[in-house]
Amino acid sequence: MAEVLVYVDHVDGAVRKPTLELLTLARRIGEPVALALGNNAADTAAALAEHGAVRVLTNEAAELADYLVVPKVDALQAAYEAVSPAAVLVPSSAEGKEIAARLALRVRGGLITDAVDLEADGEAVVATQSAFAASYTTKSRITTGTPVITVKPNSAAVEAAPAAGTVQGLEVSFSAQATGTRVIARTPRESTGRPELTEAAIVVSGGRGVNGADNFHLIESLADALGAAVGASRAAVDAGWYPHSNQVGQTGKSVSPQLYIASGISGAIQHRAGMQTSKTIVAINKDAEAPIFELVDYGVVGDLFDVVPALTEEVNTRKG
User: Which regions form coiled coils (predicted)?
Assistant: First the structure.
């Protein structure tokens, strides 16, 4: 069976969920070979092996931490040349898409971004994407070169499949461009204790109907009861009610959770483009004619100031 190269997203050896999803998808089209880079990369081996990686390639060179994207592209290219994979899979984050695009250019491979599913068709890899704000679903395959594919978080359920997970060091010759842009400082993001927005299985978002920053505690309380991330519409962000980093939409972040709850959001196309691939969508809005109701699985016509607290109380009661 052909090998599939999977780029690992981890934090000091702790593998992030989108990578485990990639390993699940990779097993559909071949044998996963994982590439872990940076600090404590070798510590990822156990989790990667548990989820199907037959080999784990690692490199912890200082360049990977001290400089921007190019060193990671150099390392991924070195892994590509060592493995000769049938496909390369990368998490569909902002950095992941840049890494994938640069690699595809270097190896003369085809690039598909934001895939939501993968399947094998003979020796070809077929990627499913949502197009035009998720109004259409497309299936694509690369016709020239090796497919380089980025996959959206929450596109597949994580499935354990223990494999050998043999750890091998990867030799990397960094290019002259690798040290062109140096990271001179880092500021840790303040932790809220909530899941990362783009990776969360549940997202609760608030919009114009929340009517002020002081009222976003209603959205946060429901999110905390559900173990969810908090999102916001562009209107709420532009009004200064919630940080831009939490914006869901075409000019914000794209999410694809199992459950998306939109509270006080009208459902303009800009917002829909960022959440329309969610598995189950619930909307709470007092305007029965709001566009958001056109795409929901469940809609509640009511005042969010009544509905959201009642829902939060019910969730907490059922949790015991």
Answer: none
